[in-house]
Amino acid sequence: MPYAEVSVNSPAAGRGAYSYELPENLAVRPGQAVLVPFGPRILQGIAVEVSDTPRFDATRQLSGVIDPPLYLTAAQLAAGRWIRRHYLAPLFPSLALWLPPGFERSAESVFTRSGLDIGQIPLSELERDFLATLDTTIPADQKTLEKRFGKLAAQKAVRHLLGHGLIERRYRLQALKVKPLLERVVHLKGDPENALKNAANLLKRSPKQSAVLRLLATSRGRLPLAEIRREFGDVAAVVSALVAKDLVHIANEESRRNPSLPAAVELPMPHTLTPAQAAAVSEVTASVDRAGGETFLLHGVTGSGKTEVYLHAAKHTLKQGKQVVVLVPEISLTHQIIERFTARFSGRVAVLHSKLSLGERFDQWRGIAEGDYDIVIGPRSALFAPFANPGLIVIDEEHEWAYKQQDTPPLYHAREAARRLSLETGATLLLGSATPDIESYFKALRGDYHLLELPDRLTPHPSAPLPPVTLIDMRDELKSGNLSIFSRKLKAEIEAALKNGEQVILFFNRRGGATFIQCRDCGEVLKCRNCRLPLGFHPVENRLVCHHCNAQYRVPAVCPVCGRSRIKFIGLGTQKLEEETKKEFPGVKILRWDSDAARDKDTGYRIFDDFRAGKADILIGTQVVARGLDLPRVGLVGVINADTALNLPDFRAGERTFQLLLQVAGRAGRGEFPGRVVVQSYQPAHYAITAAVAHDYKGFYQKELEYRRLLGYPPFIELAVLTVQHPAEADGLQIAHNLKKKLELERDSTGAKDIEFIGPAPAFVPRRRGKYRWQVIVKGRDIVDFLDKACLSSGVGVDVDPLGLD
């Protein structure tokens, strides 16, 4: 008898699969979406194996397959299982990464009358009404009953009626969240020539009917009814008359909800490749032909033409009948790269990201699955597009932290997941960056990846150097009496740039108006009730905002502790920077680009388009303005404070600072104006800042690598962060201590000498959403195997290969 091992869509299912007996005459294959009983409910699942022997002695019968049939490919199934193992994540969410948007549905309770006679059972009037609404065969769902009778009253009635056997409860999956969109389409009967003759005959008697026929005849014989309505207003009677005359017919047809994509634009650089670009393209395309799952690291200085390498490699991949995945770190960056890909591959590009509506994501996913597109672009989730034969996976700005999933399991890194997927499919993985991740560059030098270099900048000026950087010690500015946020040098450079018709980018990596708010009488700092972290002041919204949980609070008139009104706003954010810039340079057109100004994808696109079109002189922004933007009229970049991330309790703080500074400096001088950069710092001697000022990636890499070797951090060891959360601070700490003791016993009993522990200690965000957070850091080698054998409780959060220790 055949059995299926099924990953079940339930938090209780954990990291394992469960054995189910297959009903007679029901064929199931690995990777197929199925329905299974789990506890008292029917839930979704994915079959991961089919065999003649169950893994568990006690089995239940599989309920059925999901219709229409849905399958993960063998490569997707294998990659999903690797994600589960490597990140110690639940199995179903690891596989569900490849499922269509809106697929996951939970079970809901439904009720029917049992047919048992009420007899002498005491029932209230509400319970009698409740029972009277139920049928013996057609089930009623709990939500509908709660709406009618009230939530608490309905739940009480259910308990009483179930207890006396008067009703029966079953479970079913909730209704589909999204379906194909159907629209009414009007079709001509006969050819357009006859339609035009009929239109001429109807012109005097029925001019509107004549006009509709003419429109259809010039529109390939078919148009959605909604489009005809937009042209002529209410046409229901007109179309009905044409149907009655047998001149047209109406059909319900599927309509794709396509997202609005930026218009295709031609690339500013010529298509002729430089020798370095040509060499890179040659190596990558040869790898695509070999289909060996190789990985390349393309290290090119800012403005060196990495995108052109992506485009040529993609063109070759499509010629081989394979598909291309292009990942960018943020939704805001899809705009520019979509422009470039649609310019070369019109009609072949799909986009997938979370800011699309559910219907748009569903239709893009189906279009990809059905072969309508062979290129997909998007942030990390686009990696899981339903391509059957991917040949090339591109990860642009591969060093970016946004490629790491940080909220809900599986806490995968898209770069590592892409590496596994490329090995399973034979696709070539191409990583691109001007400031590669330390671990990626280490692997490239060690030979795990193939290293490709683009050392020269490509601008309208041949052999243009990287923009010179002036480093300003803001301590000297203060000593000389300059209390402005602008150094004298930066102010002079902004004035010169504006006079010359150049655009300016001002970078400051902190949003809002003030860093924190403090009472000058008692010293109280206003903090988030959930996270116990200082609140930032946002003057545009006139709100206090927690930058970790996004909770918002009113600005108090008096201190909540001492009741006095001497409240001071301290520090700087992009909103405050915008205010100060307007004061310093009156009449100048300014745009601000941060997560407050661009709350949806379209606003971010609009800011980018407006600045590129010259509708503003200065762009103020957070790290989004540092990432891969090509703005040819920018002549000056000013970094207001290079130190914002430098002193965080994170071993990658220096690397992140260096990458941000080098990336934002690279926005200057990419077009007609020679670029220059002014960096303001209170720690100008820090090695990350001095290396960024010198555009010295290799020098920074060597110094950073040596520090990590001495301190025992990746790439020399592996890391995992275990997090315990509890509403009570002391209880959470005790649980964390018990966790560490358990791990120490496991290490000592297994002889895993390379494993060490740090903590427990409060997390960098010590309290989130009302729960205290304690962390135990695990360092060593083969830590995934060690933690897997330790059988951690499901209540312990596990982050393997964390971005940092914050």
* Radius of gyration of CA atoms, rounded to a whole number: 31 Å
In the CATH scheme, what's the topology name of the largest domain?
Answer: Rossmann fold
Mean pLDDT: 86
Can you identify the CATH class of the largest domain?
A: Alpha Beta
Question: How helix-rich are the residues, as a percent range?
Answer: 25-40%
Give the CA-based shape. Answer: globular
Q: Per CATH, which architecture of the largest domain? A: 3-Layer(aba) Sandwich
Helix-and-strand structural type = alpha/beta
Strand fraction equals 15-25%
The tally of strands reads 34
Question: Number of folding domains?
Answer: 6
Number of helices: 24
Given as residue ranges, the uncertain stretches (5+ residues, pLDDT < 50) are: none
What is the CA–CA distance across the termini? 51 Å
Largest sheet, spatial ordering of strands: 15-16-14-17-18-13-19
Report the sheet with the most strands, covering strand number, pairing sense and barrel closure. 7 strands, parallel
**CATH 4th-level superfamily of the largest domain:** P-loop containing nucleotide triphosphate hydrolases
GO cellular component, one term: primosome complex
Keywords: ATP-binding, DNA replication, DNA-binding, Helicase, Hydrolase, Isomerase, Metal-binding, Nucleotide-binding, Primosome, Zinc
Pfam families: DEAD, Helicase_C, PriA_3primeBD, PriA_C
Cofactor: Zn(2+)
